[in-house]
C-alpha cells in the first residue's frame, strides 16, 4: 500500500473554498481552530470573526458620523449662503450691494479680510466702503493678478507678497491664504478676494463652488446696478 502524501496548506485552503459548507454541523471544529491575535494571544475562529465584525462596525459608525458632520456643515453653509444671496438680490444701489456682501462675508462667514475691486473709475463711494471697495480700470489691475486670473475662474491658495500687497494692503503681512473670483457678466465687472490668516483655510485643493456661485450672482447684480445707478443718482439730485 503506497504511503499517502500529506496535504499542503494551499490544497486544504483550495478544498475549503470549494466546500464552503464543510463546517455546517461541525461546530466543535470551529471552536478548536486557533488563530494568532495581533495582541499576542491565540483566539478561536469565532472570536476572531466577532472581532473583525466589531472593527468593521466601528469603521462604519465613524464614516456615518463623518457624513453626518459634513451634512450639518453643509446645512449651515447653505443657510448662510441663502441669506447672503437674498441680501444681494434686495440691494437697490451699489453701496447697498457692497455693504451687504462685506457684512455677510465678515460676520457670517468669518472672513479675516475682504477686498472688492470694481472696474469703474466713475463710481464714487463714501465712508467705510472706500477701505474695502476700490474703483479702478480693468487695465490698472496689477500684472501679477492678471496672469493669476487669466483663465477667468476662481482660485484658492497661498499668494505671493506682491499679490497680497495689491489685494490686502491693510492686512498683507497677516493674510496667509486667499480665495479670488473674477466678476464677469457682459464683460469684466471686477474681482472679489477673501483672505484668511490661516495658511490652510484656502488650500489650493479646496473646491471653488461656493465662491464661484457668489461671484456669479454678484457680477450680475453689479452689472444691473451700475447700469441703473447713474440714472437713479441723477433723478435723486434733481429732486
- Based on CA atoms alone, the radius of gyration comes out at 32 Å
Strand pairing plus helix content: what structural class? alpha+beta
What is the general shape? elongated
Distance between the termini: 122 Å
Number of strands: 7
Strand order of the largest sheet: 4-3-7-6-5
The overall pLDDT average reads 84
The level of helicity is 40-55%
Largest sheet: 5 strands, mixed
Unreliable stretches (pLDDT < 50, length at least 5) are 232-237
SSE order in H/E notation? HHEEHHEEHEHEEH
- Strand content of the residues, in percent? 5-15%
Please count the helical segments: 7
Written account of the structure:
It is a single chain. Helix 3 (45-90) packs antiparallel against helix 4 (94-108) and helix 3 (45-90) packs parallel to helix 7 (209-238). It is built from 7 helices and 7 strands. The protein is elongated and about 95 Å long. It has a 5-stranded mixed β-sheet with strand order 4-3-7-6-5, covered by helices on one side. A two-stranded antiparallel sheet has the order 1-2. The termini are far apart. By secondary structure, the chain is an alpha+beta fold.
Amino acid at each position: 500500500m503506497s504511503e499517502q502524501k500529506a496535504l499542503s496548506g494551499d490544497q486544504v485552503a483550495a478544498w475549503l473554498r470549494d466546500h464552503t459548507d464543510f463546517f455546517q454541523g461541525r461546530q466543535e471544529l470551529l471552536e478548536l481552530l486557533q488563530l494568532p491575535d495581533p495582541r499576542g494571544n491565540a483566539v478561536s475562529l469565532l472570536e476572531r470573526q466577532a472581532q473583525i465584525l466589531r472593527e468593521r462596525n466601528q469603521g462604519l459608525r465613524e464614516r456615518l458620523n463623518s457624513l453626518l458632520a459634513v451634512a450639518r456643515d453643509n446645512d449651515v453653509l447653505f443657510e448662510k449662503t441663502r441669506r447672503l444671496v437674498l441680501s444681494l438680490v434686495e440691494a437697490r444701489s451699489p453701496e447697498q450691494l457692497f455693504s451687504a456682501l462685506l457684512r455677510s462675508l465678515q460676520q457670517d462667514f468669518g472672513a479675516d479680510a475682504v477686498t472688492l475691486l470694481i472696474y469703474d473709475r466713475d463710481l464714487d463711494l463714501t465712508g467705510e466702503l472706500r477701505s474695502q471697495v476700490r474703483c479702478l480700470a480693468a487695465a490698472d489691475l496689477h500684472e501679477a493678478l492678471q496672469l493669476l486670473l487669466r483663465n477667468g475662474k476662481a482660485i484658492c491658495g497661498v499668494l505671493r507678497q506682491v499679490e497680497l500687497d495689491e489685494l490686502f494692503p491693510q492686512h498683507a503681512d497677516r493674510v496667509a491664504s486667499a480665495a479670488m473670483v473674477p466678476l464677469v457678466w457682459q464683460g469684466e465687472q471686477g474681482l472679489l478676494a477673501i483672505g484668511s490668516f490661516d495658511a490652510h483655510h484656502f488650500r489650493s485643493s479646496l473646491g471653488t463652488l461656493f465662491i464661484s456661485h457668489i461671484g456669479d450672482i454678484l457680477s450680475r447684480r453689479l452689472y444691473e446696478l451700475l447700469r441703473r445707478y447713474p440714472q437713479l443718482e441723477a433723478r435723486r439730485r434733481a429732486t
